[in-house]
Known about the structure:
Largest sheet: 7 strands, mixed
Strand content: over 45%
Order of helices and strands: EEEEHEEHEEEEEE
Structural class: mainly beta
Oligomer: single chain
Radius of gyration: 18 Å
Shape: globular
Number of helices: 2
Amino acid sequence: LSAEIEFRPTAGAAPEETPRRRTVFYTLKDGRVVSARIAMDGATLIPGKGTPLPRSQAGLEPLPATAAQPFMTRQKFEDYLRLFGKFDERYLLYYHPEVVFGIRPAAQPLYGRDEILALYQPLRKVLDESVVVNAIVIDSERGAIAAEITNTMTATGAVNIAGLAMRPGDRRRASGVVFYELKDGMIIELR
């Protein structure tokens, strides 16, 4: 179970303090909350030495059978992220044709698989990326996912997009929650 909670400044707090929304993941047992954890949120830049790192030359794996499932499962979501992390363009098969991509590194929402591919094709020439799921809640019936992820990007060349500048060898690790909407078992919106 997950919930988005708004934390408000305490009475007497400085006027510039504003409410902050955070996602909390709950663990349930026998219908009762047994633990609650606030999702990680933030980023760290780990400077490199300006030298490109070697890239993996792994071959193309068979398309996971989950790609054709008419509903979302944790395994299907992890298969999608694995293909995305390797920049196997078949990750786009997990997106609905009318997908709206409203998260970084896009400077503005992207509409459809072709726009997402147009962003990532040149970017992946200079940037490797891996995504780890820390916590996930999937509700296929309602068509929603809340996923707390840690994303590690490694520059293999100079990167300068949407407020992100990295030199070869730099790594950036960021954690946060991405909300996905589903349609027909595919991702139709990321925000």
